[in-house]
Each structure stands twice: as structure tokens, then as C-alpha cells.
Amino acid sequence: MDKKVFVTHQLPGDRIHDLGQLCDMNVWMGPGLLPGGALAEELSECHGLLCLLTDQVDRPLLDSLPKLEFVSSMSAGVDHIDVAALTERGIPLGHTPGVLVDATANATFALMLSAARRVVEADRYIRQGNWRNDNAWSPEFFTGKDVSGATLGIIGLGAIGQAVATRAASFGMRVLACNRTEHNVPGVESVSLEELLLRSDFVSIHVPLNEETRNLMNADRIATMKPGAVLVNTARGGIVDETALAQALSSGDLYAAGIDVFAREPVEQDNPLLALPNVVVAPHIGSATMLTRARMADLAADNAIAALAGQPMPCCVNPEVYS
Ligand code: DGY
Predict the structure, then answer these.
(1) Ligand 1 proximity of 286 Cβ (cutoff 6 Å)
(2) pTM of the model as a whole
């Protein structure tokens, strides 16, 4: 009998069709995202799950799924999944790093430049009919913050952090970085987090969300950032204290922020960051290019295909389950 695999969304790419040939595949067809409570019911008879970062896979859910043999998430980050609970059960977890590196590094730069050069504010200014002869170009009109010659501090020097460093060098920026383990990247000065926050004109976050990094950028750390600095976050919302960040931005201690990820997604309309003109926001689109999303879906399907064949997943978060 074919193994049953549940896929929580229709996916781009080609490999999902190959997966469909190899199992009894059931795909959630919407509308919208699979409602939180529906996962347990949909998965009750399943051997495999292919999910998104919007699906919560926690211990109580796993307790109710004795047949589950593998999980594959179409995401690099796996903070929506209880990895320890999967590992205890010997269940491999696949994810999709690597293929989203360039797209996410580019999105980081898009947010950084938009925040520094007030692009979104300027766009709104024109659309609201404010650009008139009596209110036009002048020497200080829409002046922003210089990027070239500034210092960028990168928190987390994994593949995405390094791709951001490469881009920063070509923009003529000085690059500092802090990382849990020592990394020797040419042109990047390795410093402590404390020193990075004191010295950086721009700070960009590239660490995963876990118990070590949750609330890493808390009110105390935000208060030590260089006056007039810009914070960019394309990693995960829970890493930054949004209330403290909003305060630092509205008081003028910080110049601006570019935020792609929020502690709660979709973000609530009363989130204080949304009320600030010096915050550029995006709805978690760091990896959102057509090719990148197709590659992520293909890798997620490849992880599932390997698991169905009883082979190690090509990108496994907890390879210890194989030993
Ligand atoms: C991921 O895959 O973890 C990213 O956040 C998606 O953009």
C-alpha cells in the first residue's frame, strides 16, 4: 500500500509531481492557509508531512500521530517545529537552506536601502499629492542616511550573513560580524555582539530563532546601539523586542528600521512599528522570488522523496536520527 503524505499547501516547482507519483498524496487546496486545528485531523493516517513555516508542529500534535515517519518543511527556519520532539521519536526533519541565500540577502539590502534612503516615505509623499511646485526639490529635500562608507554589523555569519557581507563590500561599507562560532571571512571583522552594536551604523540580523536568540535584541541591547543606527531584520520576529524598537525609533535614538518578519504573523494592525514613518515593513518576503520558491519547494519534495525511499534526506535538520 502507498504511504500517505499530507502537503499543507499547493507548491511550485516540478518535484512535487514526482512525489505525488510515489505516494498517496493529499494536498490542502485552501482557500488560504490550513487552519491551525486542522493539521491533526488531516495527518491522522499519514506517514509523511510536507509543511510550510506557517504550520505549527508541536509535541501534542506529534503525540497524536503514531504513524508519522518524516516531516519536510519548505523553509530554512524550523522554529515552527519541535525538533527535539521529532528527534526523540526518530523522525527526520527536512528543511531548505542554501537555495534562498541570494534572494534573502537581496531582500535585506532592499530593506536597508529603502530605510536609509526613505524610499517608501518618498513614494507615499508623491501618491498623496504632496510633490508640488510650492513643495519641491531643495537641498535638504528627502535627505537620508549614507550607506557607502558606513559600518554594517551582521549578527549571524552563516550563508545569508556572508552573502550580505559580500553585497555590503561592493557598496563600500565596512563590515563587522558576530557569530556563535568563529568564522574567518575575508573583509569581515569579527567582534562581540556588544562591540558590534556600539560601532555599527546599520545592523542586520541573520540568526535562526531558538531559545538562545529569542529576544536577543531586547530593550537593553537596543539602547546600546549607535545613535542614529538602522536595524534590519529578515530573520525572525521573535529575535527583536518590537515595543522597545518602536520606542527607540519614535524617540529618534534610532534612525530607521527595515522589518520583514514579526513576532506574530500576519502582523496585527496595532503593532507599534506600523505607525512609524521611519519603518519599512514587508510581509515575510525575504525569499519570495519565483525561482527561489520553486527551488525551496523542490528541495522540500526531494527531502520527502528520500524519506519515502528509506534514505537520508539531502537536507536534514536532525541527522542523528539516522545513527
Ligand atoms: C525560511 O525559509 O525560513 C524563510 O524565512 C522563508 O523566507
Answers:
(1) yes
(2) 0.97
284 is catalytic: yes
How crowded is residue 4: how many other Cβ atoms within 10 Å of its Cβ?
Answer: 16
Contacts of 270 (CB under 8 A, 6+ apart): none
Tens digit of each residue's pLDDT (9 = 90 or more) over 199-217: 999 999 999 999 999 999 9
User: What would the grid cell of residue 284 be?
Assistant: 515575510
Apex 77 CA angle, 14 and 277, nearest 5: 105
Q: Is the CB of 235 under 6 A from ligand 1?
A: no
End-to-end CA distance of the chain: 27
Residue 195: active-site member: no
Homologous superfamily of the 101-281 domain (CATH): NAD(P)-binding Rossmann-like Domain (3.40.50.720)
DSSP structure string for 234-269: -S-GGGB-HHHHHHHHHTTSEEEEEE---SSSSPPT
